[in-house]
Amino acid sequence: MGKLIVIDHPLIQHKLTLIRDKNTGSKDFREIVKEMSMLIGYEITRDLPLQEVEVETPLCVTKSKSLSGKKLGIIPILRAGLGMVDGVLQLIPAAKVGHVGLYRDPVTLEPVEYYCKLPTDVEERDLIVLDPMLATGGSAMAAIKFLKDKGASNIKLACIIASPEGIKVVQDHHEDVDIYVASVDEKLDENAYIVPGLGDAGDRLFGTK
Ligand code: URA
Question: Mean pLDDT for the chain?
Answer without folding.
Answer: 96
